[in-house]
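Hi C.,

You asked whether I'd gotten around to modeling the 121-residue construct. I have! Everything is below, sequence then structure, no commentary in between.
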Amino acid sequence: QVQLVESGGGLVQPGGSLRLSCAASGSIFSIYVMGWYRQAPGKQRELVADITTGGSTNYADSVKGRFTISRDNAKNTVYLQMNSLKPEDTAVYYCNAALVVAGAQKYNDYWGQGTQVLVSS
């Protein structure tokens, strides 16, 4: 059984900062990519940023220069530092991991339960 547990969401004023964390636990053999997605009301879930085991990163154009993704491989944890937040960043943020469970042969996607980020004055 694998769990991804997110933390760090909340209410912040425009221009403020938040840091999201997501820790993966369970019978994990290896994790390839960890990332963050978000879903705003009435919109499709979209990729915010992801990072490979080796540290290669990928960002949505809308967050480049404002958000930074990082990862602690020893702790199976991924972080998302969000600066200069805008009202349009309001969404439920989901952690994602492409990982291999112990005894398995291929990667599968796992998701966290989501954490709400609300940017409002």
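If it helps when you're writing up: Residues 40 and 91 are 4 Å apart (CA to CA).

Thanks,
B.
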